[in-house]
Design brief:
With 360 residues, this protein is α/β, with parallel strands linked by helices. The protein has helices at 13-24, 62-70, 85-97, 100-124, 146-160, 171-177, 199-212, 256-260; strands spanning 5-9, 28-32, 48-49, 139-143, 167-170, 187-191, 195-196, 217-218, 223-229, 232-238, 241-243, 247-250, 270-280, 290-293, 308-312, 319-321, 343-350. The strands form five sheets. A five-stranded mixed beta sheet has the order 5-6-4-14-15. Strands 8-2-1-12 form a four-stranded parallel beta sheet. Bound molecules: flavin-adenine dinucleotide.
């Protein structure tokens, strides 16, 4: 029997890792990417690997917050409001998913997936010639109000039910762990398992690695449509000709639903806007990723649920994603002021589940 063949559509973290594992398993793989490898959501993210994030994106209370954010173009979760039945049907399903029972059912699955994912990153970090600043530093949520801190403690207890270890720190203890925190931070919760990496370094590095394994990585090749016969995809039509394989892996992120429309399939994915900011590291920068809790903390409809407003990643040298006003170093770095790196908007595919788990 000949080698099994696969075409992977999309050169983001999902596509490149899928191609890697298929090729390692002996498949003959071709990867097609319409632009450059890692030009989608996988480029502009914070690189956080967070098995502590067991809450699905569709968590209790998120629906109403999400609707408010939808009308604010500079919010962290902006979906352009428009007359589009697919969007409103997605929002309706998302609303149904924002229920405590659904969230509780999802949490052990998310936990298991994230822990398994982190194990794989540990293995990948040992690959020859692949360096992506993988660092198991832990992460921290910090609080500026006593009520927010109290909810953070409840949340940590809730996560503990799903096997997430954490350490609650009062203000002075939080500052001794993270000296960059301002004096008015009232407390923090440390999640020691969490890790981080430099996302573009990882995805581009692994893409070079799969090319060395013999996988053709066809950049500048856009998939236009899929042809099918019965329940099988028979051809992948691209701007550079038609391809065929035993298996097709669709990993085109926020654009996936438009590709399968040619098969009459509806994949309920809506693109939302996220943003990331990269600026040069200062001496007083935090040494591990952290997030602040947002103003709604303490008013959640579900005890223990907290909305994180800002996540901050960390780069090993030169540049770090921007921080917010909870650290001393942030005083000269507001949303646009004091920024000397690059700012980028990225499409974030939201499938009504949680944020992409391949990187977390
Ligand atoms: C601001 C921000 C911060 C984030 N922070 C984190 C984080 O800290 N941790 C975490 O785990 N996740 C984070 N995420 C989520 C994470 O970035 C995504 O879940 C992940 O990158 C999705 O990867 P992907 O491969 O599915 O999609 P993408 O990276 O978007 O890749 C899809 C690829 O498909 C290509 N493509 C599209 N259409 C076609 C076509 N027709 N033909 C060929 N190719 C096509 C695109 O060009 C693109 O390169 C963040 C997201 C955002 C926006």
């Amino acid at each position: 029997m000949g080698r099994r063949t696969a075409i992977v559509i999309g050169g983001g973290v999902i596509g490149v890792t899928s191609a890697y594992y298929l090729a390692s398993d002996g498949w003959a793989v071709t990867l097609v990417e319409r632009g450059e490898v890692c030009s989608g959501s996988s480029y502009g993210n914070a690189g956080l690997l967070v098995p502590s994030h067991v809450l699905p994106l569709a968590a209790p209370g998120v629906w109403w917050q999400g609707v408010k954010w939808m009308f604010k173009p500079d919010s962290p979760f902006y979906i352009q409001p428009r007359v589009d039945p697919a969007l409103w049907s997605w929002l309706w399903r998302f609303r149904a998913a924002c229920h405590p029972d659904r969230a509780r059912r999802a949490m052990p699955l998310i936990r298991e997936l994230s822990v398994a994912s982190l194990d794989l990153y540990r293995d990948l970090a040992k690959l020859d010639g692949l360096e992506f600043a993988f660092r198991e530093s832990g992460s921290m949520i910090v609080f500026l109000t006593a009520s927010g801190f109290e909810h953070g403690i409840q949340e940590a207890r809730l996560f503990g039910e799903f096997g997430v270890p954490s350490k609650v720190l009062d203000g002075p203890a939080a500052r001794s762990v993270e000296p960059a925190l301002r004096p008015d931070v009232v407390g923090g919760v440390l999640f020691p398992e969490d890790a981080l990496l430099v996302p573009d370094r990882f995805v581009k590095g692994l893409a070079r690695n799969i090319e060395a394994l013999g996988v053709p990585v066809r950049q500048g090749t856009e998939v236009l449509r899929l042809r099918s016969s019965g329940d099988r995809v028979t051809a992948v039509e691209t701007t550079r000709g038609s391809l065929a394989a035993d298996t097709v892996v669709l990993a085109a992120g926020a654009w996936s639903s438009s590709i399968v429309r040619s098969l009459g399939l509806r994949v309920p994915i809506q693109a939302a806007k996220g943003y990331s900011l990269t600026y040069r590291r200062r001496d007083a920068s935090p040494s591990r990723p952290w997030a602040t809790s947002c103003a709604s903390a303490g008013r959640s409809s579900w005890p223990g649920w907290i909305c994180r407003s800002t996540s901050v990643g960390w780069r090993p040298s030169g540049a770090a994603p921007a921080s917010t006003s909870s650290t001393r170093s942030a005083s000269s770095c507001s949303r646009s002021g004091g920024v000397c790196g690059r700012a980028r908007r990225t499409a974030c595919p939201c499938s009504g589940g949680r944020r992409g788990t391949a990187t977390s």
